[in-house]
Amino acid sequence: MSTLHVFVVSPDTRSERRFDPHITVGQLKSKLELFTGIPAASQVISVLNSEDNPTIVAQLSDDSKPLGFYSLQDWQVLKVDDSNPSASFTGQLTDVSQVDKFELSDDAYAQRTDSVLAYKQQHKVGRFAPKAEETKTASIPANMTVNARCEVESLEPGLSKRGTIRFVGETKFASGVWVGVEYDEPFGKNDGSVKGDRYFTCRPNYGVFIKPEKVKVGDFPELALDLDEEM
């Protein structure tokens, strides 16, 4: 084994490191001091199989022995404790009990324009986002109600598809708001039901579901069939 891959944990640090198994424990301690902050003379190094298993499988107690002497394996954990924390900064980097906290009242925070709260209010994020019900209401014209007469946008020139609105709301077959229309003529695709769910009732092929933007509400009388044009 040319290089050992291990995790090093201490009261203030955690890192993945590589070491030559031929270096001595004393040499290892000199390297560990650089990033754990624990003086070499105060280091107590334990070997754990993993961070989840706190059982100590070895103690690197002899500074003259090489790491290979302790049969270290890849991805084991070197737990470095400080035997004399009062003489070093161990633990102080993570101890915030002595740090003066900056406190701001709720009212003062609400007045700031550079806060997360201000950003959310400006961009309508989180609890400031429009409620689903508000969004649905805003997308439906006030006059688009059940039993209102309407005309549906058609891709065929000269063809007017008129009918009566029978349903307005959300459906199970697709997301968003849909308008259910009962056509005056059999231009539809259903009888007011889709995939077994009924939203209104009409004759077969007289019912259709359309997005609100394609429906125009108004005083659209039913088109009379001109029998003189039929031969």
From TrEMBL:
The keyword Transcription does not apply. It comes from the Eukaryota. One of its GO terms (biological process) is cytoplasmic microtubule organization. Residues 169-211 form the CAP-Gly domain. InterPro entries: CAP-Gly_dom_sf, CAP-Gly_domain, TBCB_Ubl, Ubiquitin-like_dom, Ubiquitin-like_domsf. Coiled coil: none annotated. Belongs to the TBCB family. This is Tubulin-folding cofactor B. The lineage of its organism: Eukaryota, Fungi, Dikarya, Basidiomycota, Agaricomycotina.
